[in-house]
Fold each of these.
Amino acid sequence: MNHSSNSPTVYIPRDTTALSLGADKVASQLHSQQPDINIVRNGSRGLFWLEPMIEVTTPLGRVAYGPVQPEDVASLLANDFLQGDSSHPLYLGLTEEIPYLAQQQRVTFARVGITNPVSLADYRAYGGLVGLQKALTLTPQTIVDEVKTSGLRGRGGAAFPTGIKWQTVLNAPSNKKYIVCNADEGDSGTFADRMLMEGDPYCLIEGMIIAGLAVGADQGYIYLREEYPVAHQILNEAIATAESENILGDNVLGSGKAFNLQVRLGAGAYICGEETSLLESLEGKRGMVRAKPPLPAIVGLFGQPTIVNNVISLASVPDIMANGAEQYQEFGTGRSRGTLPFQLAGNIKQGGLVELAFGATLKTLLEDFGGGTRSGKPMRTVQIGGPLGAYLPEHLWDTPLDYEAFLAIGAGVGHGGIVAFDNSVNLSQQARFSMEFCTIESCGKCTPCRIGSTRGVEVIDRITNNEQREENLELLEELCDTMVHGSLCAMGGMTPIPVTSALKHFPEDFSPAEGANSSSQQQGAEHA
Amino acid sequence: MTQTSNGSELAATINSIIAEHKTLEGPLLPILHASQQALGYIPSEAVPMIAEQLQLTKAEVHGVISFYHFFRSSPAGNNTIQICRAESCQSMGSRELEAEIKQRLKVDYHQTTADGEITLEPVYCLGNCACSPAIRVNDDIHGRVDMNKFENIVDELLTVAVELKL
């Protein structure tokens, strides 16, 4: 960053969401009206209903204004927002004191929204690379032990203990090992991976290098979904800078250790978020699921031992190394340690990213943070953990957010994506969509998933059309059971979760009158 | 995106893309991405060339192209618009929005408007779920889209297209 003493600094995010609401136009408007302003393009703070939220540095700290449209720029300048003037209607006060942000426990997202994501100087100034420097002084086993002690579990959804996975790869005898970052988060309602990659890419890069040191891998790949063009650009900028500064390459921070990293783009296949499909895709094949065992930790990319971790899992590691496993595992509850970035999405007034220790309730997130629905109608259900997650009714919103507590109510925390629906939702439509989604996105390798989902759509249609209702309800249950127990991977195995949760908690939506109506609507809006 | 007019030019483009990516580990997807970026689609002529140089069968290369939603075997319109069909956008009315957009453009998914300007595609999550419904226009993502906003986006797209042609 280039702070000259008399040119004020204004932060305008370049995060996808801020851009999707006009951040670039705001930046160019501000630049054209006052060219001497130092504009920094930061990540988003994750207060998405306020985007584009711009900040100005003042002696008291950063002051925020939002949501700012290009036509607001003139009045902001007239009101002297560059001095943090409080009289403008878009004035939000000191950013850090906005309750939505102040009440969070930001650990993994500590830098996101604060720094210029591609500035290494910013990254270093805010505690970056401390974890890597420490890891370079430790033995691989010590690094793995530290991750084990932290209690970190995979943040992609399956919640497998990260340290155990790393130990398996460390123990696997091979001259060539890989670190693969699963950045193919394709679940509706999730954007934490995207935000982290766009807002603090060096944190992911640092986490991957530490993983490489831990297991003896010198090559990493970030498998990124094609749907994230902004993240792609920012990651590539960050990797190029990290290479030029010897953070990546053949001599990591002068240690003599090598770690190289490339971004690889997916091509619009949801199934490639499943780790074995992802590896097939990286190898240049169709993204077809592999049978396990062998685990990727033993036979992974190109047949070599491979760590496959989610973005947030890897990005949690630098903090664990820098500040110690103990302080990380002090966050949380039960066997769910640390923090999880929850994502409030869908029909929600104050959507955005909320990083909290495990143990908060859904109600806290939906009401205290989310502020209810955007439509203003009563909230009826939330789907948590992506399109293969359960639809939960209000009486379950008091469940504390931890992996075991959610398992007990037939749901999963997954990656913390929470999609809210108001009372205009029809749950038989949503159940039908889950099956339909599976027909479109199944890799096709196993019959329960490929054919089961096709039959699932038909059976739900028959139920909502009141054709042999009782028999078809029974058939749907059997079909779901077959998919759960007969599918090779979580795609077929979890598709029944939204279906059975919708049936269990909202049976009235499958009643003939309502159902027949919704089914014809659904078919009208169906894809080609 | 350039429409290559003659076969030898096309072959030269594909050959140079293959040469550039061949030494990567797992080079097929990067080659397909680069081809589609350069040409707008992956022409059938590319399949045997890629197969031969990567020592794969033509069926294997074709199988990969057809597996992934993003790869296309024929040219798209000048612009591609994707509408998110995932749950978060559904909760904010994307089902109605997609029906209205199809009607407005007079196309269904995977089709191109009569003037060749816009190809319409479905997409499952653009990661903009707190500002649903979302659409993607080429590489730009738009949030909280309604028909009013959509009309403005299309107007802007087509105005730019006309200016370029002049």
Amino acid sequence: MNWDKKDLLGIKELSKEEILLILNTTDSFKDISKREIKKVPTLRGKTVITLFYEPSTRTRTSFEIAAKRLSADTINISASTSSYVKGETLKDTAKNLESMKPDAIIIRHSMPGAPHMLSKIVDSSIINGGDGAHEHPTQALLDLYTMREKKGKIDGLKIAIIGDIAHSRVARSNIFALRHFKTEIICSGPPTMIPPYLDSLGVRVEYDMNRAVTNADVIMMLRIQKERGGISYIPSIKEYSTIYGLKKEHVKKAKKDVIIMHPGPMNRGVEITDEVADGPYSVILDQVENGVAVRMAILYLLIGREA
Amino acid sequence: MKILIKNGRVIDPRHGTDEKLDIYINGNIIERIDKHIREKGSNIRVIDASRHIVSPGLIDVHTHLREPGYEYKETIKTGTMAAAKGGFTTIVCMANTDPVNDNKSVTEFIVKQSKLEGVCRVFPCGAITKGLKGEELSEMGEMYEAGIVAISDDGKSVKNAELLRKALEYARLFAIPAISHCEDEDLSKGYVHEGHASLLSGLEANPSIAEEIIVRRDIAIAEYVGSPIHLTHISTRGSVEAINKAKKQYRKITCDTCPHYFTLTDEATLTFDTNTKVNPPLRSKEDVAAIKEGLRNNTIDIIATDHAPHDFTSKDVEFNIATYGISGLETAFALSLSLVREGVLTLNELLKRFTVNPAKFLNLPYGELAPGKAADLIIFNPDREWVVDKDKFLSKGKNTPFHGWKLKGKNLLTIVDGNIVYRDNTF
């Protein structure tokens, strides 16, 4: 299987073989982070720009570390420090950046389709670092990698995704990715946060969280997307926490070796209690660790192989 | 000027005509329609239409001309040139200009400018409320005197039901119809249709009921006060069903749809191509099927363009912030001819939705071919293939999702008021 795509815009565009290629490539990059000298020359002479129009700690840092561990030069641009605040359009920003000949641009934007727009106007590889409620492909890939690492497989898993599904790009990308495997996906959350037609993706909707987590191999918690108006979809945080906050008793209903995932940032005490977030089943920090390796693999596949 | 159109297949739904005939135009009127009219005298321009169809000029009840205020998007001159190319001889322009057409001075300007620079007939549609704000009635009496033929706050519904009631009642003074843009703004915060495609794209979406609730409300208000109501750019199955049912008990309801609502589905938005961003949004396959059925069973009376030209930069941005609309005048008729090939409508029925029905709805003496009537007609070939090239549009708006599409059916010649205002270079 060869990688022949210029960009990584979404999981929806990937075949199962391409997903597996990324996961398998990740294996070989994970060890680099454990070495004393965490650096290889793979992307020496390459330039990677992170263009973030939305706040992010995890994804941007993860990409930056991934690029640096591969010896690429990295430049970070955020909305507050870009000409965006002076009224420059995304297209003009991208064209200006393109003139400086970067090899890859990682973009996060609040608007679905922004990376797709960029991919049509610049020659650099575009990586979608999250576009509105549309996709977050690298998060889904690191989630799949973590599932496979912890459970030894993806096929056969029962995965409960709980929270603000309607506004979640993480949920969408995970569902698109998991549909390639023989998994059972159950989505749970307040009806206002379950998008219409969700079942058309082969997902079971279960409003009762207790039933959703019963016998689950994986419980993936999501936060309320306040920046996308998620808060107006529920009466109060308190009530949401009471009904959909992941507590110890929920974990007991799941499989004995369940893993608890969260893409972060967590709202402790809202969608997840401290004792679950920090408990023995939590793989939340493993997800973060794997994120660097997955992003190294993606950068390598997109811009590194001819080096 | 005298023009003799020879041997065309003349189709006129108003008079039930469908046969090979000659048409003799003298000045601005049709003088004679008959078999084998002989040219007499000099200065007669003879046009051979023997392999083509001659029909009344098309009438568009829903065009945005953008002048005054947005001349960089369209002017009355360029908009009417686009109309003539598309086969339209009469168009009604919406009120959302800057300033809004909510008073006689703006109406007078549009009428005057249309006479100066327009190449087809232009009738302004006045705003229902001042500034399209939905707060106070506009001066529709004075606008009527200046030339409006309908009222509409198109672009938005009149949110205040009581104000709409007053508008419909007041408009009875002038016997002009109201054109209703059906959209509940509280339910429609999104940019695309709420359905499977929006689930995939993550774009904020509008449900069908945002349209259907206002369809039902506006019909109820119109029926209560006994006024006519025209529901424009209908796009959903629920709307078609509601209108079909309501028409059976109240006869003053008419409606239109646009070619993009029976040509494209919401799946087109998965490309994030901002040219697919329209309001109401492109709907599901089921909705498209219902629109076709609505055309077939006469629920939908008229096909309108909702020609909404935009400058390049208004569309060359992220989907969320792109403006709504398709530059539709130059593709509408060709796209609609596919309904004939699909067996949804006969050619006569299709032409009815572009000619006699809009003329009747607007109470205008056009949309027919008869001696003594205005010489507004087109010559088209329903089988002529062509490729849509936005760069060849006469409209300033190049915003079309149909760029590069191969279409079948082309307008070849347009005559307005006895003058040839458009002629295809292949004819």
Amino acid sequence: MSYRASAVERLVTGGIYALMFLICVVTLYPFLYILSTSLASSNVPLTQIQLIPPEISLESYRRVLEYPLIGIGYCNTIVRTVLGTFLSVLVTLMMAYPLSKKYFPHRTFWTGLVVFTMFFSGGIIPNYILVRSLGLMNTVWALVLPELVSAFNLVIVRNFMMSLPDSLEESAKIDGANDITILFRIVLPICKPIIATIALWVAVWHWNSWFDSLIYATRAENQVVQLVMRRIVLEGSQNSMSLSAQMNRQNEIVTPENLKAATIMVTTIPILLVYPFVQKYFVKGIMIGSLKG
Amino acid sequence: MAAASSLFKRYALQKASPGERGVFQQYWKHRHLFLLLLPGLVYFIVFRYLPIYGLTIAFKDFRFLEGIWGSPWVGLDVFQNVFSRADFWEVFRNTFLLSIYKLIFGFAPPILFALLLNEIRNAFYKKAVQTISYLPHFVSWVVLGGLFIQFLSPSIGPINILLKAMGLKAIYFLGDPKWFRTTLVVTDIWKSMGWGSIIYLASLSNIDTAMYEAADIDGANRWQKMRSITLPSLSPVITIMLILAVGKLVNDNFDQIFNMYNPAVYSVGDVLGTYTYREGLENMSYSYATAVELFKNVIAFALVYSANKIAGKINEYGIW
């Protein structure tokens, strides 16, 4: 290999490194901008926001956290995420087990019933009519039940269970344990890795969901935090005005823009903190999904 | 329990015909398994199959008080109404245009990103770049909508401040019909490029390194290796992803548009999803909105099917 070729090589490699760095900057910049805006004191003109604002104030955050609907919204989000994830995993697990048994009667039919829903669904309006007819409006059930079991997750758990050796349960069967006991005592502990993965997917999905809350929660106190944020930031000139008008402590004025930025940060920070640790489980999901697709 | 079971067996043996008895006994034998299946089964019937039955309101004049069953059939009147409205066709056009733009401009970036990332040998740097590039995927459009409204603001947004400093006019990225589509496409690429590269990176890591070593011995340069080894190895994945992308042509990124659009840009940014939402849930035209959505799903199905057919003709990688 000649000297010139290697110089060109090195130049290209350097270029790629630099380009990757640039992509990272472009990805992060909007977030950093909002972070700086949320931290800037209202004395800093909004047209002069810098990465590290000349005057930092946590007043916007204090206001946002004191705004009652944010706290309530967070509670609603946490409740739906915890309850929804727990029930989803439980029902998925219970349903996958019989479908993984070759001797279960009409197994193909029952599995087909599930797989069919991957390709056909009712869509927004029939779902809305159903939830309303069942009287679930403004309850947490409207957010938990409609997406309780994903056919995709069910198939993944079922395939995992099918790969387990039969000998596991045979000895328990001889001891007179029934299928329910076997599932919860023997099979469940072995399925822990796949359960953790699915629980994570469902939990992140619940945390980020907002549209169902928009249509099923008509009262402000039933809405999830993403929606409260949406109302403050998108529709919310009134909300943010009233927020910035709350002269509850010393007469420090907070501009609506600082407040909106703080609201965005308050709703995003949990995800920012958690996602580096959970991303690998999501990558796994893509891999499984692509094998299927 | 034991007594009941023996009673049941005797009853089943007396009352049932031979074939039926077999099935009954089968389920009785596996009653615990069936019990485990039951909650999920009830869920699927209520929350998956009832809404599919609910699609019939596209052929009815649906009124809430009479319910789905009680509303009168009107045949294809609703669809006639849909196809006769000018706003429907505008929305239909927007949906297609926007999706095609996203396909044209958004399909290649994840592939290029994966290829460039693959050239990076420093494992730590590679991991860091990957992790950062995944970030936008985990933030929902409802948050990003709020973020971009502020970030792209003509008065305080950094891009426009820069433009104004250069003596140019501020651009109303989210309020000007001329710019709205561009904004949607660019922000969508910004959000999905890193995450979309995963699948390609995985395929790249599966390529046999012996091929590269052989190419090195033959004195192939980086570009030649990419052309003769890397890209051909990626082509099956690229084909599958392209089929899936074509299938999504009518799937209109409702979340993104709903959180970024406003009446000023309906003429270019209103798509089937947002239109369905407004017509159905704001104007309460349930039948109308359902008909629109049903039409959308039929088109989507036809698209996936034909894309797959075409791909099957080109090479042997189909999705079914």
